[in-house]
Amino acid sequence: MPTRWTVTFDCARPALLAEFWALALGYVPKPPPAGFGSWEEWFAHHGVPEEEWDDGAYLCDPDGVGPALSFLKVPEPKSAKNRVHLDVQAGGGRETPWEVRWPRVVETVARLTAAGAEVVREHEMDGRPDHMEMTDPEGNEFCVV
């Protein structure tokens, strides 16, 4: 049986970064645990100080397939290249014909750029564009393929 897992982002502004990644991946805010009407109710029940209630944000795949995402507030800024990054497979994967895949990649890059991402560079394969290397609003690297 596989182990459930979560991708966690250390960040300065959890709610804003969660909003970006919800847009990028089609994820939704994670509902509060069973028995609680809101995260605030859960925090209060577990004695989390009110000033810490905005120190995290949580997303989930609405279809229940992909991993959950957590965004946790940390005091230090990002200082080096990610050792792990996400590939946003907006184009449908390399098995999708390039003529179909590449316009999807371009549209997604435009949408994410409008939401605060930045293009780092365009990568080529076999003499034509293949994927875009980008950074999210806090500088975390990811690719759109």
Can you tell me about this structure?
The chain has helices at residues 14-25, 39-45, 98-114; strands at residues 6-11, 28-29, 56-60, 68-73, 86-88, 118-125, 128-135, 141-144. It has two domains: 6-73, no CATH class; 86-144, Signal recognition particle alu RNA binding heterodimer, srp9/1, CATH 3.30.720. By secondary structure, the protein is of the alpha/beta class. It has three helices and eight strands, in the order βαβαβββαβββ. The radius of gyration is 17 Å and the shape is elongated. The model has no long low-confidence stretch (mean pLDDT 95). A hairpin with a 2-residue loop joins β6 and β7.
List the topology elements.
Layout: E1 6-11, H1 14-25, E2 28-29, H2 39-45, E3 56-60, E4 68-73, E5 86-88, H3 98-114, E6 118-125, E7 128-135, E8 141-144
Parallel strand pairs: 1-4, 5-8
Antiparallel strand pairs: 2-3, 3-4, 6-7, 7-8
- Helix share of residues? 10-25%
Terminal Cα span = 30 Å
Instruction: Calculate Rg over CA atoms.
Output: 17 Å
Shape: elongated
Spatial order of strands in the largest sheet: 1-4-3-2
Give the DSSP E fraction (strand runs of 2 or more residues).
25-35%
Total domains: 2
Structural class: alpha/beta
Q: How can the largest sheet be summarized? A: 4 strands, mixed
Please write the string of helix (H) and strand (E) elements.
EHEHEEEHEEE
DSSP strand tally: 8
| Average pLDDT reading | 95
